[in-house]
Every structure is written in structure tokens, then in C-alpha cells.
Amino acid sequence: MIGAARSGEPSRVALLGAPIDMGASRRGTLMGPAALRTAGLPDLLVSLGLDVVDFGDVGIADVADLADLPPPKANHYREIQRWSRVLARRSYELAQTGAIPIFLGGDHSLSMGSVNGVARHWREAGHDLFVLWLDAHADYNTPETTLSANMHGMSAAFLCGEAGLDGLLGDEPRARLNPDQLELFGVRSIDKLEKDLLRLRRVSIVDMRAIDEFGVGVLIRRVIDKVRARNGVLHVSFDVDFLDPDIAPGVGTTVPGGATYREAHLIMELLHDSGLVRSVDIVELNPFLDERGKTARAAVELIGSLFGQQIADRPTPSNAITPDH
Q1: SS3 (DSSP) at 17
Q2: Does residue 5 form part of some domain?
Q3: What is the DSSP string of 240-294?
Q4: 3-class SS of residue 155
Q5: pLDDT on residue 253
Q6: Contact at 8 Å (CB) between 223 and 186?
Q7: CB 292: neighbour CB atoms within 10 A?
Q8: Distance (Å, whole) CA 131 – CA 182
Q9: Average pLDDT estimate for 44-53
Q10: CATH no. for residue 136?
Q11: How many domains does the chain have?
Q12: For residue 244, which of 256, 234, 229 has the smallest C-alpha distance?
């Protein structure tokens, strides 16, 4: 059983920035890694007792283009192909060290590389990698179904092996997920053809109506129980537009009605308690659209909860407050 680190064993975290914004419709997410660092992410993780190594930002200046034919509806395909190849290799290498990689984005197209490399590592280790996609969007379009041709909306579909971007990784090994290893959570914007494909693949979707009806505690525990029952591990792909725009205005694709501050922290605390999280993406933070760092600070606080920070100590049964007190 994969679980939390043993008592006394140092928990190691590897930070890697991916300043990519070619996959989105609005530029600016390339400043996301710097904003997350400026908002105090490395120091916060260190304060939680983690051994943190920041590997800086990855780049693609020295990466040669491949000769495959680009899909007709995939904007900036060549640039994103270079990013994906580099990130697939670097994420695999970081996962191999035993550290928990945290990929600082950058738009959500970075997950085509980061998740692939981590999935490859865990496949070799004999464990299924499940991906919790905390996002307002499903990102399950293909070049055939997309309305915008923006590749950040194709990342989840690519990871599950959908056709259309088959040459994206070149010679880098591709570790496809089964659709039942993808958990879409907090979704509230899905295109028509995208929805049809998700239904056909029977991908698990927790939309905001389900959250309103059942609460995030019940629904995130279902995900945790599913992963644990299959002796799997969990990658959290956290798009900041998962949050309500009042909390996180610094994104290029805001959708009203997102997760509240309290709901998001509860999700992260329950994920931490599970001991299953082995890698993380933080994506779509656009500091150019933010309000005095508000979104960056919220993202850092949530990652803190994911790694063990608690807002307040919870009383134990022996000292719990009762109606008589």
C-alpha cells in the first residue's frame, strides 16, 4: 500500500517551473512560476518540514523541432511539442529520485508532459497513477472536437490516449492513462462534442451541482477510496480557475460559481490525510490579470494545506467542546 512517509523519514519536494503560455488564449501564464515563488511557496513548504529543492525553470531554447505533420487545429503545436518532450523527460527524472515533483505553470498544456513522465515512473514501479483534475474545464477536447484550437483544452484527452496528437512526444515514451484513472472535479464548462466524448469514455465527472448536493468531503473521499482500493497513487493537477473568480481573479478563463475558499482547503487537507499524493501541477495562474497577488497567495495557501498546513488544530475527543461547556 502506498501511504504517507514513514515517521522520521524526510519528505522531499522538487519544484520545477514551466513558463509556458502558448497553449492558452490569453498570454501571461509564463509569469506564473515567478509569482508562485514570490508569494512564498518554497519558504512555506520548508516551514512544513519538507526538504525542498527548487530546480528553477525548464526551457526549450535548445530543443530541436520534430518533422511530424502538425494537426490542422492545434495552435502553437511546435512550441508545445517542445515543452511536452522536455517536461515528460524531466518529470520522469524527478519522480525517479523519490521526491514529490511540483510543476509550476504555465498553462494547462504543460500537463501533457508532466503527467506523462510521472505516469511512466509509477507504471514501472507497478502502481496506477490517478489524476485529480481540479478545473473549471474538462480539457478533454481533441484537434477534431475543439472550438478554439487552444491546446490547454486538449491536455486531459491527450493523457488518456485520444487521437489527434499522437506525435506530440516524439521519441519520449508515452504512458497513457485509462479514462477511469482521470477524475474531473469542479467542472462547470464543457463543450458539446467534448461532453459527448467524455460520456463515451465514461470519465468520472464531479461538477458543481454534485458538489452543491453532496459536498466536497463526501466526493473527494470517493476519489481517495477508489485510488486506495487499487493501490494507486495520485497526481493533483490544480488549475486555479477551479476556484471561484472572487478568490482567484488571476486567470484567463474565469467561470463563475467555482469552489469556495473553505471547500478548496477541505479538499487539500483530505488529500494530505490520504497520503496518496505523489505529484502536483499548479497551472493557469496569470499574474498580469491578478489583483495584487491575490490568486498567487490563494494558490500557495492551498498547496500548504495539501502538504500538511492546518488553519486550526482540531480538537480530539478527550477535549472536544460539548453543548454543556
Answers
A1: strand
A2: no
A3: GGGB-TTT----SS--SS-B-HHHHHHHHHHHHHHT-EEEEEEE---GGGSSTTH
A4: helix
A5: 87
A6: no
A7: 8
A8: 5
A9: 97
A10: 3.40.800.10
A11: 1
A12: 256
Render 144-158 in DSSP notation, one character per residue.
TT-SS--GGGSHHHH
**Residue count (the chain):** 325
Is residue 325 in a domain?
A: no
- For 210, residues 6+ apart whose C-beta sits below 8 A from its C-beta are 219
Confidence of residue 110 (pLDDT cuts 50, 70, 90): very high
Is residue 157 within 8 Å of 178, Cβ to Cβ?
no
Which residues are the active-site residues?
Answer: 108, 135, 137, 139, 152, 239, 241, 284
In terms of Cα–Cα distance, which of 267, 287, 289, 263 is closest to 277? 267
**Could you tell me if 157 and 139 are in contact, meaning their C-beta atoms sit under 8 angstroms apart?**
yes
Structural domain boundaries enclosing 28 = 12-306
| Calpha distance 157→140 (Å, rounded) | 4
In this structure, the dihedral spanned by the alpha carbons of residues 150, 151, 156 and 159, taken in order and rounded to 10 degrees, is 160
Distance (Å, whole) CA 68 – CA 151: 17
Tell me which of 205 and 253 has the higher pLDDT: 205
Joined grid coordinates for residue 118: 510521472
Q: Specify the pLDDT at position 6.
A: 34
C-alpha cell at position 224: 481517495
| pTM to 2 decimal places | 0.92
pLDDT of residue 40: 98
Is position 312 within any domain?
Answer: no
Report the alpha-carbon distance of residue 191 to residue 314 in Å, rounded.
42
Question: Taking the mean position of all CA atoms in its chain, how far away is CA 81?
Answer: 19
Taking only the tens place, the pLDDT of each residue in 232-263 is 999 999 999 999 999 999 999 889 999 999 99
How many H-runs (helices) and E-runs (strands) does the chain carry? 10, 8
Instruction: List Cβ neighbours of 92 (8 Å cut-off, separation of 6 or more).
Output: 117, 118, 120, 121
Tell me the CB-side half-sphere exposure of residue 88, using CA atoms within 13 A: 21
Residue 61 near residue 144 (C-beta atoms within 8 A): no
Q: For residue 3, is it within any domain?
A: no
